[in-house]
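$ fold --in a.seq
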Amino acid sequence: MAVGAARVYPAAPRNRTVDAGTEALISAGGHFLAAEVGMGTMHKIAASIFAAWFLCATPAFAEELAIPSEYQGQPIQITARFDKPAGVGPFPVVILLHTCGGAYAANSLPTWAQLLQSQGYAILRPDSFTARGVSDVCADNRVTARDRALDVFATAYLLAGRPDVRSDRIAVVGMSHGGGAAVYVTRDHEELRPWRERLGQRRGKLVASVSLYGSCGNPNGYPVIIPLLALSAGNDDWTPAAPCVALANAQQNGIMQIQVYPEAYHAFDAPIDKPFYKLGHRLAYDAAATADARIRATEFLRRYLQ
């Protein structure tokens, strides 16, 4: 599904095949995309059936976990929801990171959880804010990408000790503020090295990360050492695409891929009825970018989790 004149670094295959069931699931989630992506009549009907199942699907098993982490040098315990798909494990896991609005804000996170679970992955959704005494950090960034990266490693460490988890098949997907953390965990920051070693002692491994319109930070130093896919919006004035393009171009080994949607704005996959401004930044839904991002993310994760 091409999206205008979107640029890809490095170039993606021109022809990608996605089975009808997966494409229908990708087309669901609050906005039905058949008109935008040009499905035929019968394909639309099939997609509608799959979409109805997708939106009503519930996890086969749900559990609340307590995860030891830290904040400003003090120990805390964050809570997380752990959902497993039907079937017999152990399962690959995707750690899904919420936006600056918190774990319960209205955004695309529930749709991503359902889509990824339909691929056979267990989903863990940590709440990085409540235990730190905040509910929203959009204005002040009181909880940083570094803080949330530590949450990711603490979560992965806990998961690696469970018999129902593939400890060597753990990935991260984050949106906006969570997308910044999804980038941070992939880079060789000194404070993350002890955690990588500790996780390895449990035979655990973060194998891939996907950032949706997240900040990539300074592209200099701290190379990317975990496969990373960045999905950025060309018109995003909150977390601009340029630093992510620079970070991708700075990697010599192709370990980072980036897709820029030139006409899209921040939160392009969120179920927003009409564009609006938050803290001076424009947020707008983009159907074509959303459909393409879901395909790229699922294909990228399949490469490392299955």
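$ fold --in b.seq
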Amino acid sequence: MGHEVVALAVVLAMGCSDGTMRIPGTLQGPVISLRATQAPALLAFRYEDADAWQIFTGATTVDVAIAGPYRVAVVCRSSATSGTVQIRELARTPDDGDTLELGCGPAPAPFLVTGELQDTADIALGLASTSTSSGAFEMLSTPGTFDLVVLTGDLFNGYDGAAIRRDVPVTGDTSLGELDLAHEGRVATTATTLGATNLAAGERLSVSGVLDTGTTQVWLALGVFDNPTVVPLLPNAALRATDHQRVQVSASGTTPGGLTSSRRVTRDYHIGDPTAFTLPEPLGPVAVDLATYRLSATWTSLPAYDTLSVARQSFAEHRFRSHQLTLTRSFIEAFSLTSATLDLRDVPGIDDDWLLDPTANPTYSLSVTGDGASAGIAGVAAIATAGSR
């Protein structure tokens, strides 16, 4: 109450064309830039000590002057008729940075990229990716300059080699020609087994890996196949100083109450680094209260964290609904919170069709994340009680 929401730059709804929004007023205080790759179905902002939400429509970027703790709600759909709806509410303070990436689907990819490769491989260029079992391939790309990454073999059985062509420009339809992996500098990967120093009794270990060149990201391993603790890694000489080869070591188990527990740690990794990781402490006892469209979680203590998230999901008959509330540590500490409630129905413009399907046994979860580590719990609850809202 008493706060003025002010956005800078141009407003799409006022006849300008760069997808950003302005609300007339006087700029006061720090500014948070809300950025989406495509215009959300709904974007809303309010201060924590106010009841009224400010609704933004038709924009991909909104720059808002902020004067205290605030919340942002964003609804993402892949299309107007899509069965997938993802809603996120984020609770933050001015100390949490000046940019908030909201996602909302990939950027438009208007350009066709083609090539030929006489090998079985997965191929990625920026956000575009495809697979080939020998022969011609094609994929749709956004404009820009990207690293072309080719991983030979396959994700299920383990990649045995990799080649990277740096700085490929895409300004229109692009032919990569026939790829000669020897000419492209193909290197063999090294199958590396990773472990944990503090795995608890009954926990199951898995390892995943990602290569991020700054313009292109590819999975190296998912940790769900025949060798869940093995990840194929590129040799150090194949990596630039700006590349990030990340591994994630995860443990999952079951709590005394029958929920699924998880804890994981993610680190940049080079061949020769220690293979044993220390997992974060598990999440302590959490009391969960569920109603049809509401999830409340209460805790007494938390492991080290930067953000806390509570979430629910439902899937039935090609209708996927995902709701998530994420609170930053600074927000939690500002109000000395020991509980969080996910209930999106107070946001103006939330369509009933975007809400969970309570008959589809929605899943729920609570997790904390910080410094490349996370811990959480998850469960399934059948909620179809009349009047339980």
